[in-house]
């Protein structure tokens, strides 16, 4: 026997259908409340005497692909309690139709979730397809009005920054690491702002953060007894970056070890010759900076005389700037063995070599192959001098940190030569390996010895930073917490911000992120 569906079951609960009308644009349902009395909103006393009636027009969820309009016959009652200041009031329909609302409660819930998921304009376009037309401004107002307020007790929080506009304005995001939810968005990343928020949450015991000084200072100022935890991923990344910086500082001795200190301009292509001339000009300017610093001039005075940036002058004076010329490496490198074989076989024409390379899935231009052939021909004519190609600092750093069984024979020979000729770099590589093992194995007792050893090596700057933040680094080794999930919430925030088409103000961002959680 088929089930019978009444019209009253298709509209919000507690209402009775009086009339149903199917117009051209919508379905119009006239309904009224079933009860014979209503409670006074001021004194909560039941009232039975009806003063008058009026019609409320409310939008409801669509039916059969057509929008539904409710005509609610609303009664006005008289309150008979003499002490009550309200004499006449309109009946309420509860959560089914909120007070002064133009939509039913269930439609308001759908509109709210559309706003949380899609924002303003995309949600308005999708709502129109669902036969629930609503403007983008209304959607955003609903999201703001229904924004949740979290008052949960916090034990472990993660703090990180995010950009409203990169390099100009930043905010701070605070996450509950236990519940994996966003708690608060702050308008900036100043230490005073973060400290003020932490002061209002004295129950916090763990603060996970990156290794920037601002959040650590704020946590120490607001909650002196809190345990600070540095992010382990950032520690590993900073260690790798410190080793790469050490390789860059050692490029000149590396070139000397590999026999690439002599460059014959005759063997350079036209593009590489232009780069080499620029390298010589920079080397000359670096010598001027060094001579002025040797005469006792301050960095500020050198900047004033030369007109160069303060950062560049400071790096050169302190020996942190290493400009090394190296020949270009491009799309032709994977095909060099094939080219050498063809050259030895007697093919010396650049165009013919290029046509043969095209059959080997080479997508470069004829000019690239022609320059290689010119260089190769000149190298045979010049005796006693050859142009040695050296890898970049990032490539050398990667090869030195890989296991030996993952390297080719040529790469193994090059790494062995570097380690033998630049022992300080080999020592730095060993220190980085020790640091990574210490973080992975949670061996906090080895940290003081590692800091002392690293301060006497090429990693001195990184070691000094670890010493300044040693308590947070120890926390990252001993505590199970990490700032990884905060980084993930930042990615989610960026997605939501870009969906807002420039309207992602702080309160709206917070309402969408907290509402989605």
Automatic annotation (TrEMBL):
Q: What PANTHER family does its record include? A: TRANSPOSASE FOR INSERTION SEQUENCE ELEMENT IS1557
Q: What is this protein called?
A: ISL3 family transposase
Q: Where is the Transposase IS204/IS1001/IS1096/IS1165 DDE domain?
A: 157-251, 392-512
Q: What is an example of a Pfam family matching this protein?
A: DDE_Tnp_ISL3
Superkingdom of the source? Bacteria
What are the Transposase IS204/IS1001/IS1096/IS1165 zinc-finger domain coordinates in residue numbering? 37-80
The record's annotation in InterPro entries points to: Transpos_ISL3 (IPR047951), Transposase_DDE (IPR002560), Transposase_Znf (IPR029261)
């Amino acid at each position: 026997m088929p089930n019978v569906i009444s019209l009253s079951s298709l509209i919000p609960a507690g209402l009775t259908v009086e009339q149903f009308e199917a117009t051209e644009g919508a379905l119009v349902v006239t309904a009224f409340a079933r009860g014979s009395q209503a409670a006074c909103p001021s004194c909560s006393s039941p009232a039975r005497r009806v003063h008058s009636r009026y019609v409320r027009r409310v939008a409801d969820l669509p039916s059969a692909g057509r929008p539904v309009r409710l005509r609610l016959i609303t009664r006005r009652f008289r309150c008979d309690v003499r002490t009550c200041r309200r004499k006449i009031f309109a009946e309420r329909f509860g959560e089914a139709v909120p007070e002064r609302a133009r939509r039913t409660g269930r439609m308001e819930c759908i509109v709210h979730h559309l706003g949380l998921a899609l924002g303003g304009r995309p949600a308005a376009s999708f709502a129109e397809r669902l036969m629930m037309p609503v403007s983008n401004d209304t959607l955003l107002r609903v999201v703001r009005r229904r924004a949740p307020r979290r008052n949960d007790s916090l034990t472990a929080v993660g703090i990180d920054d995010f950009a409203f506009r990169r390099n100009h304005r930043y905010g701070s995001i605070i996450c509950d690491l236990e519940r994996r939810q966003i708690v608060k968005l702050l308008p900036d990343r100043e230490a005073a702002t973060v400290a003020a928020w932490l002061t209002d949450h004295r129950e916090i015991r763990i603060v996970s953060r990156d290794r920037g000084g601002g959040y650590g200072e704020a946590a120490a100022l607001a909650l002196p007894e809190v345990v600070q935890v540095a992010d382990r991923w950032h520690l590993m990344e900073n260690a790798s970056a410190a080793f790469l910086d050490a390789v860059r500082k050692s490029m000149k001795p590396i070139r000397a070890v590999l026999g690439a200190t002599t460059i014959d301009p005759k063997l350079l292509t036209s593009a590489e010759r232009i780069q080499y001339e620029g390298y010589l000009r920079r080397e000359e300017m670096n010598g001027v900076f060094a001579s002025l610093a040797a005469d006792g001039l301050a960095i500020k005075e050198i900047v004033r005389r030369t007109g160069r940036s303060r950062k560049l002058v400071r790096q050169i004076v302190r020996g942190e700037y290493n400009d090394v010329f190296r020949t270009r490496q491009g799309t032709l490198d994977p095909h060099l063995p094939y080219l050498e074989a063809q050259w030895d076989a007697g093919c010396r024409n650049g165009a013919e070599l290029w046509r043969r390379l095209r059959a080997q899935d080479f997508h470069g231009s004829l000019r690239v192959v022609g320059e290689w052939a010119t260089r190769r021909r000149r190298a045979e004519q010049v005796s006693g001098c050859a142009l040695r190609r050296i890898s970049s600092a990032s490539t050398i750093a990667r090869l030195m940190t890989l296991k030996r069984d993952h390297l080719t024979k040529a790469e193994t020979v090059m790494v062995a030569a570097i380690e033998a000729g630049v022992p300080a770099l080999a020592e730095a590589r060993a220190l980085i390996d020790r640091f990574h093992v210490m973080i992975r194995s949670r061996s906090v007792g080895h940290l003081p010895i590692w800091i002392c050893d690293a301060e006497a090596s090429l990693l001195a700057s990184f070691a000094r930073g670890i010493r300044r933040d040693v308590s947070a680094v120890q926390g990252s080794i001993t505590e199970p917490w990490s700032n990884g999930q905060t980084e993930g919430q930042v990615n989610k925030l960026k997605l939501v911000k870009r969906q807002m088409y420039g309207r992602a103000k702080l309160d709206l961002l917070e309402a969408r992120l907290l509402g989605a959680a």
